[in-house]
Amino acid sequence: MAVEHPWAYVNKTGPAYVSATHERTARIPHGGKSLEKTYWSAHKSGSRWPMEHVVLKTGTTFFKYKNKADATKGGPGESLSHRLFKEAISRITGTQLKLKNFGEHQIQIQAGATEKEIVFDDGKYFADAYLRFTSATNLALRWEGEVYVEVHHKHAVPVEKQRQLRELGIPVVEVKLPEFFEYRHESDSTAKHEEEHVAWICRTLQQGGFLAGTVISDRRSKELLEEMVRELEQQLLAANADRKEMQDAYKKRLEKAEEEVARLTQDTVNQRTRANQLVTRVANQEGELTDARESLKATKDNLAAAKSGAAKASELAAAASAELTALRKKLRFRLLVGGVVFAGVACAFIAFYFFGSGSSQAQATTPPQAAAPTLAPVPSSPRVALVKSQKRPARHTARRATNEQSLGGQSFDGSSESHGSDDGE
Question: What total of structural domains would you count in the chain?
Answer without folding.
Answer: 3
